[in-house]
Specification:
It is built from twelve helices and 17 strands. It is α+β, with helices and mostly antiparallel strands.
Length: 411
């Protein structure tokens, strides 16, 4: 079984499939935290990893528990306790009842004598409704510990926890339980991204980097993104902790936001540095919120499909020895001088906003500061343009395609 399939977040699953597998301990934590797969599948996958992994390999990776037990001890304890709880939970006894519980207003609470009867009483779930849980308790011990089965949306037992009893609140027990551990999980989310979980939408404003490690993580509560939510009826924002490996977390395009959530499109632009904060606050506080929302969605749509001649790129990887990315214009830009734009850094990733103009003439000159480019880089780029000036001008006049220009530069 692939540990990635236990994660209830399409965006995270897709991202992890492009990366090397996580270390075994981190895989185990994610499997144990799964809310979408039955407990029987989780135990089978964990046993598979346990049997295939040398004990010393469990120490690899970035994970933490509020407990000093070695990871194999934590894993073995989970396997044992959950297998025992499954047997007990399914066992009908004269003094035991099963009660369906939910945070919604449905009239659950009727006691049943068997698990099957309790499950059969659960009504079909609404689209935005979380599955209920089922409590198994003894009628002759009202204050004793009870077992609570947390269900998946397919109404299969995904986890069984203990509530109440003499060990309630025992931090050592909680801190050494496999699902409660912290595991570093690479993800694709960036500041300004809009994400959805069910019917809830957020703009990410803080996130750990995908290529680093959040060394302060101590338990599952640290496996979060920090987001901003919007409540249109009250005109207020909220600050949220988002468990990003759960709840079907996925990225959302601004145009796909429901009408009542479109203020988040404007917040997203501010977070990305693409919209001026002062202008946003002026519009927001002076009653022009609808314009803010409309303009933000329109800007995002335009960014998805820029005019084909707007920013033709020649990247460093396209031409051997090219020290910076180039961006080309054509003569359709009336009134602009004949020029290319040069990225002011040697980054491989193109950043059009960080460019300076370089004129297309016999002695090319930079019209502005050249940023992080070294004098050698500046000379190399000027020489490249001077040597291939006719080709650059032909492209400007739309007499040569980008591909033909590339062929010339590579020669």
């Amino acid at each position: 079984m692939d540990y990635i399939d236990f994660i209830d977040a399409p965006a995270v699953r897709d991202h992890l499939r492009r990366l090397p597998p996580l270390p075994p301990a981190q895989q185990c934590i994610l499997i144990a935290q799964s809310e979408i797969r039955p407990l029987t599948d989780k135990l089978a996958a964990l046993r598979e990893i346990r049997d295939a992994t040398p004990t010393e390999d469990f120490s690899r990776g970035c994970w933490t528990f509020q407990c000093g037990d070695p990871f194999p001890v934590i894993l073995d304890r989970y396997l044992q306790t959950r297998a025992e709880r499954l047997v007990t939970f399914r066992k009908a006894e004269p003094v035991v009842v099963y009660v369906v519980e939910t945070g919604y207003s449905r009239d659950y609470g009727t006691p049943f004598s068997t698990l099957g009867a309790a499950l059969a009483s659960v009504e079909p779930l609404e689209e935005d409704e979380a599955p209920p849980s089922i409590r198994r308790r003894r009628i002759d011990d009202a204050d004793g510990a009870t077992l609570v089965a947390e269900l998946s949306r397919q109404l299969e037992i995904a986890e069984i926890v203990v509530r109440g009893g003499p060990d309630a609140g025992n931090m050592r027990i909680w801190g050494g339980d496999l699902p409660n551990g912290y595991a570093h999980v690479p993800h694709p989310f960036r500041r300004g991204d809009i994400v959805r979980q069910g019917n809830d939408y957020y703009v990410i404003h803080q996130t750990e980097t995908t290529d680093g490690r959040f060394s302060w993580g101590v338990d599952e509560s640290d496996m979060v993104l920090y987001g901003i939510s919007w409540h249109k009826p009250s005109g207020s924002f909220g600050h949220e902790h988002i468990f990003y490996t759960r709840g079907g977390t996925e990225l959302v395009a601004p145009a796909d936001l429901p009408e009542k959530e479109r203020m988040l499109a404007a917040v997203s632009l501010v977070m990305r540095g693409e919209y001026d904060l002062i202008t946003f606050l002026q519009c927001f506080t002076n009653g022009d919120r609808e314009t803010l929302e409309k303009d933000a969605v329109d800007d995002a749509e335009r960014a998805k499909s820029p005019p084909p001649t707007a920013k033709t790129e020649i990247l460093r990887s396209d031409v051997p020895g090219l020290p910076a990315n180039l961006f080309l214009r054509t003569s359709c830009f009336r009134g602009f001088p004949k020029a290319v734009r040069v990225q002011r850094s040697g980054d491989d990733e193109p950043h059009y906003r960080d460019t300076v103009e370089l004129t297309l003439e016999a002695e090319p000159r930079f019209n502005g500061g050249t940023g992080d480019l070294s004098p050698e880089d500046v000379g190399t780029i000027r020489d490249l343009v001077a040597r291939n000036l006719d080709a650059f001008l032909a492209h400007w006049d739309e007499k040569m395609t980008r591909e033909e220009l590339l062929d010339t530069l590579r020669r």
